[in-house]
Amino acid sequence: MNQDLEILHPERELEIAGETVLVREFGFIEAARLSALAKPVIDDLSGLMTDPEAEIGLGVLDDILTRHTDIMVRLLARAVDRDPAWIESLSDADGQRLMLTFWEVNSGFFMRRLVMQAVARQPLSVDSARSTPH
Q: What is the pLDDT of residues 75-85, one digit of tens each?
């Protein structure tokens, strides 16, 4: 049962900068509001998905996430209910641990939007023989 709850609403407690923080998954409405903010990150991830030569690994993911540092600071702050200044004050080691945990908890947020983009790129198929007459 506990594992089922973790799948439905994953969150992780983490010791960061001497404090215990809860890294939580974005809820439905919160995710909808954050989608526009996260769009440049999602677009870069989407570019990897459509490039057959792309090798997706932790280094590539880190490159994308750090390319969009200002966005990630805001997303991280929301996921841990902290001020962005707190995120910016973290040591490199603490920041990396937080980023990896954030990705573990919120990767579904990004993946669902990547799937929606991929589906939206598919051409619509219209079967003229089955179309409704005027």
A: 999 999 999 99
Read off the pTM: 0.79
Contact 89, 16 (CB under 8 A): no
Residue 17 zone, left/alpha/beta (φ > 0; ψ -120 to 50; rest): left
- Measured between alpha carbons, how far is 40 from 74 in angstroms, rounded to an integer? 13
Distance CA 21, CA 90 (A): 13
- DSSP letters along 34-99, please? HHHHHHHHHHHHHHHHH-TT----HHHHHHHHHHTHHHHHHHHHHHHT--HHHHHTS-HHHHHHHH
Inter-residue contact 110 to 68 (CB < 8 Å): no
Label residue 48 exposed, middle or buried (CB < 10 Å: 0-12, 13-18, 19+). Answer: middle
